[in-house]
């Protein structure tokens, strides 16, 4: 099987790998790099559980082929923690009770992070619109919106 050499940055670490042309970024992150924060759920890009930030854009890692991220900067939920401190979004999700089963949490946080990186003070409507592409079956979204609002005040 032919492989391709790819190099990218993930959570501040430079990574160079030989990958199959059809290997997804989700597979690479979870199986090769042991970064399991991005969850495998639908496998079709519908739920958002596998969301990571690639060059500032939230992307469904189950739909992105690893060769497509050659040269990119990727952030996963594991990369948000700085100097043993949780990211304000992670803190706010815990404080507001926005985590229940936790399955969607990392994708939701990464989607919200990309929003806050673009817009430090989003409106409630902008938050709702942004996270609406991520499915959460437990919280009803109210606590998630409150968590993103709280995090926006801290960043």
The CATH topology annotation of the largest domain reads as Ubiquitin-like (UB roll)
* pLDDT < 50 stretches: none
In the CATH scheme, the class of the largest domain would be: Alpha Beta
The major beta sheet can be summarized as: 5 strands, mixed
* Strand segment count: 5
The domain count comes to 2
User: Oligomeric state of the chains?
Assistant: single chain
Distance between the termini: 46 Å
Topology overview:
Layout lengths: L3 E7 L2 E7 L5 H8 L18 E4 L2 E4 L12 E3 L12 H8 L9 H14 L5 H8 L10 H13 L1
Parallel strand pairs: 1-5
Antiparallel strand pairs: 1-2, 3-4, 3-5
In short:
This protein is an alpha+beta fold. It has helices spanning 25-32, 88-95, 105-118, 124-131, 142-154, and strands at 4-10, 13-19, 51-54, 57-60, 73-75.
Give an account of the 3D structure.
The protein is α+β, with helices and mostly antiparallel strands. The protein folds into two domains: 4-79, Ubiquitin-like (UB roll) (Roll), CATH 3.10.20; 88-154, DNA polymerase, domain 1. The chain is 33% helix and 16% strand. The chain is built from five helices and five strands, in the order ββαβββαααα. A hairpin with a 2-residue loop joins strand 1 and strand 2. Helix 2 crosses helix 5. The termini are far apart.
